[in-house]
Task: inverse folding
């Protein structure tokens, strides 16, 4: 979980370009600055940071952390706020806001800008603001702002910053290639082979069998509340509606007759033709080609002899053909017989020679003939209009503050209610419970809604099926009752105590190795219940191959100095490892095959681009100057996690 959270803040390039709307748009995960002045988003002048002339308010940071947390929870439904903060969420969000503010000030200093028209265009293109028709919808736009606790000014600042980042950071990050001279040392690094020894000291072997009592376990719970917290749960109400809920007006004969009359040309007799043609640069060449074709040579062969190539058009109407030639040429072409050769004819592209390849005549259709087609199209349009009107009417009711009960009563819909759900749709203690898969958008919408009683709309099947959603009640994230949790607390406390002993033994082994003993000798001297010494290592370039996670012991081994010894705490209070690095074999960069260097240089270019963006942001922070109110940040941390310092 910690790795997943930290990955939100791992790429500088992603921060500014690929992931610019973590708090705004569902698939996007990074943080741009929306700060502007001392009062923007702040509360009573309480500012957690100042970046140049920009101040980041406590309230703004609080809202942003919550927004980012809500987005992260979509990826990890079981994530709690306490776990999010513990995994670096608060610090990551604050850092992104600081970097965003510094970057925006630098952009202004360098003369970059983003016009209101450009921002308007980006807003109009964002799918999150599209209505049921698929185009920008003002109502959807206002609803989004309301649900995310944002103003239009804040949103525009977010988008403006992304546009600035695309202008400045995009070109810098998109390095096309690296020279072999730069890539050689990295190639040597990837071909480095390391070999060392490691031993594992399991915490379980040293865990006490005693029970420390309720007071000690309650203190332990307070210290590790995030680990035992059940995520927030919500009781969800929903009412489904689809096209069957809508009354669609019948298609009348008068409507059919009007469509037939208004589109008389569509039902009149028509003719289309397909032409093979070639465009010559001058009249003489075109005349030569036309003469050969009239003499029996194929148009393709005649064109090829002149160093040209022929092409075949699609089926064209006379007006469509006239658009590429002229009205007179089109008239003549549609009067000619199949197989006739036309031209040379002067066009905007040169001199054309054409041959009539096919003639397709379409007879006129009477009103009776066209009625089934017109009726079906009108029925489809009326059904679409009816569901859009129905949806919009319910959206209007939602926007006006109507409850789900009021909407359901007015529209004769049935309200269903779920048990207290996790964001995953599951119910703690009821493993057999499962909602229908189609209701996943209902759960997602319920956990995006601000509070209890607020209705919202969710799309189950695009343009077909929808739901009115409301949260009846919210059960805040909290640990289960102490009595219920006690067995798990006791087991974890014992492991934590065993982990302390394992740490002490690991440090003793390190001290012995640094004093001249081999790792095997130090392990034997440390006593029983310690694992045997194993050889570990490999090739640096093979770490993480195939997208596999790199074992923590190998990650540490490849960051150590030769002949050094280190300790490594294993996750989950499972124990400690001691690693001793013995061999480091790195080839001479100049001895590496140039083809291998070139292969390594290509994927390295994006990493270099990202490094340059990182340096640019660092310079932006240095120029602007950054001041952080650590006391306020700590207060917010305690507020969001619901904890206080243990020593208080």
Result:
């Amino acid at each position: 979980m910690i790795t997943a959270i930290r990955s939100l803040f791992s790429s500088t390039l992603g921060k500014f370009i690929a992931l610019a709307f973590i708090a705004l748009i569902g698939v996007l995960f990074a943080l741009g600055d929306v700060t502007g002045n001392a009062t923007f988003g702040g509360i009573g002048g309480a500012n957690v940071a100042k970046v140049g002339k920009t101040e980041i308010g406590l309230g703004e940071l609080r809202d942003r952390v919550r927004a980012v947390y809500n987005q992260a929870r979509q990826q990890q439904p079981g994530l709690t706020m306490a776990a999010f903060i513990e995994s670096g969420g608060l610090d990551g969000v604050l850092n992104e806001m600081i970097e965003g503010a510094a970057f925006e000030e630098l952009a202004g200093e360098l003369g970059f800008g983003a016009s209101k028209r450009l921002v308007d265009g980006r807003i109009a293109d964002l799918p999150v603001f599209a209505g049921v028709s698929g185009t920008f919808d003002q109502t959807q736009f206002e609803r989004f702002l309301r649900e995310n606790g944002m103003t239009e000014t804040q949103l525009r600042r977010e988008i403006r910053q992304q546009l600035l980042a695309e202008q400045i950071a995009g070109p810098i990050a998109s390095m096309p290639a690296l020279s072999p001279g730069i890539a050689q040392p990295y190639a040597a690094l990837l071909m480095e082979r390391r070999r060392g020894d490691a031993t594992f000291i399991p915490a379980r072997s040293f865990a006490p069998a005693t029970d420390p009592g309720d007071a000690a376990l309650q203190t332990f719970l307070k210290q590790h509340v995030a680990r035992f917290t059940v995520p927030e749960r919500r009781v969800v109400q929903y009412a489904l509606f689809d096209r069957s809920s809508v009354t669609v007006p019948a298609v009348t004969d008068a409507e059919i007759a009007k469509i037939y009359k208004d589109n008389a040309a569509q039902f009149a007799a028509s003719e289309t033709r397909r032409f093979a043609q070639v465009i010559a640069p001058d009249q003489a060449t075109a005349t030569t080609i036309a003469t050969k074709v009239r003499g029996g040579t194929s148009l393709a062969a005649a064109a090829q002899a002149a160093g040209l190539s022929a092409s075949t058009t699609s089926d064209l109407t006379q007006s469509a053909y006239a658009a590429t030639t002229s009205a007179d040429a089109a008239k003549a072409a549609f009067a000619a017989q199949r197989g006739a050769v036309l031209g040379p004819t002067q066009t905007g592209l040169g001199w054309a020679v054409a041959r009539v390849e096919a003639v397709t005549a379409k007879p006129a259709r009477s009103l009776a003939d066209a009625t089934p087609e017109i009726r079906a199209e009108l029925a489809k349009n009326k059904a679409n209009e009816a569901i859009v009107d129905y949806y919009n009417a319910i959206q209007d009711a939602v926007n006006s503050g109507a409850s789900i009960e009021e909407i359901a009563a007015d529209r004769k819909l049935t309200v269903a209610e779920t048990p207290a759900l996790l964001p995953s749709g599951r119910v703690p203690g009821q493993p057999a419970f499962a909602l229908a898969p189609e209701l996943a958008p209902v759960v997602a919408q319920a956990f995006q809604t601000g509070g209890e009683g607020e209705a919202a709309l969710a799309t189950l099947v695009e343009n077909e099926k929808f739901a009115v959603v409301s949260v009846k009640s919210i059960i805040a994230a909290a640990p289960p009752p102490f009595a219920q949790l006690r067995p798990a607390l006791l087991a974890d406390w014992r492991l934590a105590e065993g982990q302390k002993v394992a740490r002490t033994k690991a440090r003793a082994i390190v001290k012995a190795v640094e004093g001249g003993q081999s790792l095997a000798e130090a392990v034997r001297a440390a006593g029983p219940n310690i694992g045997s010494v194993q050889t570990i290592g490999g090739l640096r370039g093979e770490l993480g191959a195939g997208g596999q996670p790199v074992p923590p012991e190998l990650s540490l081994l490849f960051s150590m100095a030769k002949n050094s010894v280190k300790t490594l705490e294993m996750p989950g209070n499972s124990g400690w490892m001691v690693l001793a690095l013995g061999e480091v074999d790195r080839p001479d960069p100049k001895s590496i095959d140039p083809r291998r260097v070139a292969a390594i240089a290509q994927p390295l270019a994006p990493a270099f681009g990202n490094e340059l963006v990182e340096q640019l942001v660092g310079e932006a922070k240095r120029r602007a100057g950054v001041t952080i109110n650590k006391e306020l940040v700590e207060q917010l941390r305690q507020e969001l996690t619901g904890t206080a310092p243990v020593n208080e």
Notes: The chain has four domains: 2-178+607-641, 192-230+481-585, 233-247+386-475, 270-362.
